[in-house]
Write a structure and sequence with these properties.
Elements (H helix, E strand, L loop, with lengths): L12 E2 L4 E5 L4 E6 L1 H7 L2 E5 L6 E2 L4 E7 L3 E5 L4 E6 L2 H4 L3 H4 L8 E5 L11 H7 L1
Antiparallel strand pairs: 1-2, 2-3, 3-9, 4-6, 5-8, 6-7, 8-9
């Protein structure tokens, strides 16, 4: 099945578990879930995010997204420390459905090991996962 590449922004990196990463200056990154993930989950009703200052290894569960259909764990795409969480999602978790790549970001992290970025998928490789 062909997918619309506009739903896979070219400036982001991805995981096979459907998280996206936007690299920022200073070794920081934003993390969210992909359009495919939010679409598969359905209407998101709650987002469980970690506390600021929490540290996670790559692949470790850092939270969960709950929807009317299912609950899904969130997996840390890179080892790092949580600098900020998207507090807007407490009151309006549906932003993840409506705007998964900008307003619906989940956490901002300080990347602990920049070499792990090489293990992330570019848009073309992520599309093959789908």
């Amino acid at each position: 099945m062909l997918r619309n590449m506009s739903k896979i922004p070219g400036e982001l990196l991805y995981t096979a578990e459907h998280e996206w990463v936007k690299l920022l200056d200073g070794g920081e990154a934003l993390v969210g879930i992909t359009d495919h993930a939010q679409s598969s989950l359905g209407d998101i009703t709650f987002v469980d995010l970690p506390d600021e200052g929490a540290a996670f290894d790559k692949g470790e569960t850092f939270g969960a997204v709950e929807s009317v259909k299912a609950a899904s764990d969130l997996y840390m795409p890179l080892k790092g420390e949580v600098l900020e969480v998207n507090a807007d999602l407490d009151a309006t978790p549906e932003v993840v459905n409506n705007d998964p790549y900008t307003g619906g970001w989940l956490i901002k992290i300080k990347v602990a090991d920049a070499s792990e970025v090489e293990s992330l998928l570019d848009p073309a490789a992520y599309e093959k996962v789908l």
